[in-house]
DNA sequence: TTTATATTTCAATAAGTTTTGAAAGTTCAA
DNA sequence: TTGAACTTTCAAAACTTATTGAAATATAAA
């Protein structure tokens, strides 16, 4: 397989995976492109490689920077801005987990906390079922949250290698 | 807060969360509705509660059954079919993890395996960067895969409680 | 059988999301 | 300052995905 073909396949696969997880396809593709680029790329190069408009490129690169997995590089003597992706996949995973937790999970946990206040005749099976479900989800979420925080805090591989030993 | 209000809020929050993770919003809402229902619900009741069409209800209930987190209940003496959701959130999490892995991660891993075959002059930095990225992702994915398989295989809380001890 | 009730399918349509591209804004060398 | 090079914004258009609802199909009691 030729490099150009392999690159295209990788970008395609990464874009599809992103889309299934609620990430804009183009954003995932730009990320893929930067992941396999040996050097930082300019907006022009990204537009060219993926055949997308300037506005689209700009918007998605910015979002990738918000996620903390792409950064802007200023090359001395160049007017243009260049972009590069974090290459350590472990760090990428941590950044994504951290962002999604903050943006998506935390708000739901906040709502669940509120919902404990539901007025309740404990004899009513509807009230009982509701409370139980909310409390179960909260318990599960808090456990997952603790694991995720540990995962994030580690920032190192020790956690993972220890985990692998434990689960065997 | 009244029960009806709390229910509505929960269904809304669960639907939003689902949507952000690439799950059809209605599917997540039906799941939420069934989670807090003390007894199985009929298609009619689901349509009524969420104000959706028969076709929509049917399609999304079926998908929830495919995911293994909702099941059909036949009540003796009733023509109608009723539906109920798995209430143990731990089991729900396992079912979702298993399905997503199978449907989304595994195909990408297969592609990555292919991409190792890229023709390569190791001195070319483009080839080198590509290979390294692919191999890093594969390594990360395989580790995550192992952890997920352990998680799935456990079907019990021992894994989680052990994990919590390890990371402290 | 026949009839009444329930479920499934799917083409048309609605709703939601992403992308474009041109205009406005910014920056910097001359 | 000015103007060229570059970046950002955003309304309109293209595209994608979800939903409806009526027709087709299935099922069970009479």
TrEMBL record, chains A, B:
Domain HTH marR-type per the UniProt entry, residue ranges: 22-79
Pfam families to which the protein is assigned, alphabetical: MarR_2
Cross-referenced Gene3D superfamilies: Winged helix-like DNA-binding domain superfamily/Winged helix DNA-binding domain (1.10.10.10)
UniProt keywords, alphabetically: DNA-binding, Transcription, Transcription regulation
Domain of life: Bacteria
Signal peptide, first to last residue: none
Protein family according to the UniProt entry: Belongs to the GbsR family.
Listed name of the protein: HTH-type transcriptional regulator
Source species: Chitinophaga alhagiae
